[in-house]
Structures
1.
Amino acid sequence: MRERELILSETGPDDIRLPFQLLPHGVRGRLVRLGPSADAILSRHDYPDPVARLLGETLALTACLAGALKFDGVFTVQAKGSGAVRTLVADVTSDGALRGYAAYRAEDLEDDAASAEGDPHSAMRLLGGGYIAYTVDQGEHTERYQGIVELQGASLSECTHAYFRQSEQLETGVKLTAGRGADGQWRAAALMIQRMPFEGGTGLGREVTQEDYDDGWVTAMALMSSCRESELLDVELAPDRLLYRLFHEAEVRASPAQKIVDACSCSPERVERMLAALSADDIAYMKVDGVITVTCEFCKTERRYDDAALAALS
């Protein structure tokens, strides 16, 4: 219990990113568990279940991938497709503030469900052809990094695998899931492992060889694959206990958990700077009954500006 308290006492077992290592096999990973944060983000938009499930996986993936990076800013995962779901966006700050939204066409969603063979709600069926982009933005005075890969495979996990293969980064395994719990609340989770470069040395009292590393990676991938979606989402199964259940034979060691929160970066100041930069014709075009209403796509916050409020911006 003491070890568990050291890992989770500061954060609790939900809405966290839990880093871990598998010793001595050079495998590092992260487990993301989203509970109230995922439910708040998905419920405020009232998405159809297939869309909410896909966005939930995207939220978990974004929080998970960001944990592998050293940055001070915002990490974004964005998918653009030609299917019923046209846009998926999720981003997370280096402080753990997570948000996301999906744009979809309800009529296309119904047509797909009626005509599709196999699973009409698979990620690639919902998104169709397109791309997925991974972006790190650390502010206006820094260079933005972006990686883009074509949408491939049947799932968001397979798309992520394709990205790491094409970018020649570390060998990576990812497992994603999202769904409603018994209480009807949305939950989402991601489990990710990466193979670190072989450096040799000793571990667990013996010399570690390249063959040990190779065997360790194969074993870690097999153990990760054995994890059931129900385990990833199980509110009664603490994240550190899940890691031990999966990887105890490989000497799993978890680090302190990092908190993830539902938080949007929109603000009145940003909206007002945008409005102040518009021409008089643009302002007139945007008015409805004499008022401009600006709604944040992420958090659905509405901000209304009448003539007096607009005049105060100039």
Note: The domain at 2-262 is CATH 3.55.30.10 (Hsp33 domain).
2.
Amino acid sequence: MNILVTGSNGQLGNEMRVLSASHPRHTYFFTDVTETADTQVLDITDREAVSAFVGANKIDLIVNCAAYTNVDKAEDDEATAMKINAEALAVLGSQGVKVIHISTDYVFSGEEHVPCRETDKAAPRTAYGRTKYEGEKMLLAGCEEAVIIRTAWLYSSFGNNFVKTMIRLGREKEQLGVVFDQIGTPTYAADLAAAIFTVIESPVWHPGIYHFTNEGVCSWYDFTIAIHDLAGIRNCRVLPILSEEYQYKTPRPHYSVLDKSKFKKTFGVEIPHWYEALGRCVKSLSC
């Protein structure tokens, strides 16, 4: 197949590029809004540009890793977030090819007490969550063959993320306060990329909505303790604090665990535990 990967300069896009070397029978076109040595420029909100690119390169499948992910900034500029997270999905879904799209746990309220299933009612509480949910609906309206994968707490050896920040702060500071009343599952972008390739390589195409994170649950406090332990950081004291003490500009989900049963059953896979996955990422950072 000829596969277009959008948002290729981000965490997941970079992991897709790395893993593509293990799937050489496909031809890949890596794009982003800015050009690099490894990516071409493509504005996914530009219908004419996308149609021309898909046609010229005979694209069979689009993997959309592009997104407006700054939760706080989205509150102040929901129009831009809507353009990238939603309106662009109407563009991608109108190309007459299969689409794999990455969505988020933020489509839910975060007030649940059990892991969210794909059939649970969406109830986003933020501009980011609203725009991502609108994107899901726009994609499904235009592309019956779409696969939507919701994920959460994404990190990688690429880009800026919580793992890298906690390693840096752990080496700079003697003490950190990290919230303990937000529960979720850290997801290594390399494992999410592997899940995407599982969908791509499946002998049967299974359209629909799926959930994927690593296994297990923890708080941001627990996650930080694990990061420091695996990175060998011993001289920074990590203290548990309440969300209200951190004073978030935008509400964060208190419980955003996703039920992955559908993905595991459909594709016959086992998913690594978050601690084991974190160990692989930290090792790749040479900490």
Note: The mean pLDDT is 96.
3.
Amino acid sequence: MDRLRAMEVFVMVVSRGSFVRASEALDTSPANVTRYITELEAHLGTRLLNRSARTLSLTESGAAYYARGRYLLEAFADADAIAQQATIQPRGRLRVNVPVSFGIARLAPLWPVFMARYPDVELDIALIDGIVDIVEEGFDLAIRISRLPSGTHAARKLMTSRNVVCASPGYLAVHGAPDTPQDLKAHRCLGYTYARTAQAWQFVDSEQVPHTVTVRYRMHTNNGDTARAAALAGCGIIWQPTFLIGDDLRAGRLVPLLPGYRMPDIDVLAVYPSRRQLSANVRVMVDFLVAAFAGQAAQGNQAA
């Protein structure tokens, strides 16, 4: 028995929901599909599928085998794609979507290095805050800053950054500092439009107990640098990632608040449509960025 082929047939049966549809997808006969499943179950010594004339369901063993088998088949496909692309020279246009503030502060210095290393790749960098559909908008790659992984695309983590609540010394001299998250209700806050939680700021304390407070915005903006500038001018309290405000915290221009509480960290991700058939341009860019940010997670998490 070809175990890899049997695994492929089993995964296809489960994903398509029937032996007939699996045989059509694999361009073989239903009898061959049945033979593979029977031989696989005999080899494993356990039933993988409960089947009747109308229904098909996984046994407990079948569910575990399907999850692992699907992962292994994707890994084999990734290995094939990498080997096939390894001999292809990166060349042509590469469209990359990046957030404005992160793109200017952290990525802009890297583009000349990449272009020197890959002179045949033409970079098209679009600085856009907010989530775009990279397939619909024609991007090959996007840099996302998110607490959640991409649900529909492949992604590799570049770094992790802390979110820090802070204010200028001038603001604190006039309004004082909050002691608990609930105290933020009495303060002027500056919001970020694209935040998933909007005006509900989320924290955990030292005991990992969650705290959520709905704040009052004096201003909100879709750009982190704009919020930072307003905070530096004493207009209110902000939360922003350390890759944007880390220098201000270290210099004392902004002061971290609520030391007994912490906001959830965020990841910086390189997101692309699929691991399969990955273009040489996307492959070398993702590898380049991963290497460029290697070891910077700890640095990005430093608040001061």
Note: Residues 297-304 have pLDDT under 50 and may be disordered.
4.
Amino acid sequence: MEYRRIGDIQVSAIGLGEMPMSIEGRPDESRSIRTIHAALDAGVTLIDTADAYHLYADDVGHGESLVAKALASYPGDTSNVLVATKGGHLRPGDGSWTVDSRPEYLKAACEASLKRLGVEAIGLYQHHRPDPKVPYADAIGAIRDLLDAGKIRMAGISNANPAQIREAYDILGGRLVSVQNQYSPQFRSSEPELRLCDELGIAFLPWAPLGGSGRAGQLGERHQAFGRIAAERGVSPQRVCLAWMLAKSPVVIPIPGASRPETILDSVAAVDLKLTPEELAALD
């Protein structure tokens, strides 16, 4: 397994996105736990979740509880596993998504996440999504307070633009360690954020790197260069996609979603696929 850094922590170059195990179409709990265990067996040491990864109004934090249960039941050592979660995004239980970045809400959400994860401090806590009703500085100020109080060990942001990255970096006193934005062959508008993270030495965590739920299987058809190179290499287009991302910068750590052991194992194999300059140019 190849390793990269988030702050002062070394993590696997491919992380596991937990969301497909908690929202629409989620598998039964036993398969989800097998998937997380398979990732750990393969050397994955970064698991990303959020309190908003759930289906029903009384199901808040399903993903966090699932991760905690999977780690507790894993027979091996999990002391080097970094669990990243997020606050500030909500699902009322009707399938919609809302945001709430009020400082008092973010602090309460963090306390609830601490209890579900069963930890004294969250490894990486990320502001999930900007709230147009709340000044960004106020939201990040709450994250800074959580960091100063020792409730969280590292701080990150998600769905942020370059100006917000710089603002968060300043408010946190240079302690911003990660940015989690959507990035995939279809969604490349986060290139400026990726470049800024590279400049600042901040981990860039692409979410939905394979195109998102229900689209990963169509990647090679939607983007023919990925399908062609995958066929030539005898691997999946998804593996080519993740290898392409890893080649972008040493700060890139994709977090593909998975709900089956076979899926995360194929994703992890991307660290061993080294693409040629010609292949990378074709994919770009």
Note: The CA atoms of residues 69 and 83 lie 13 Å apart.
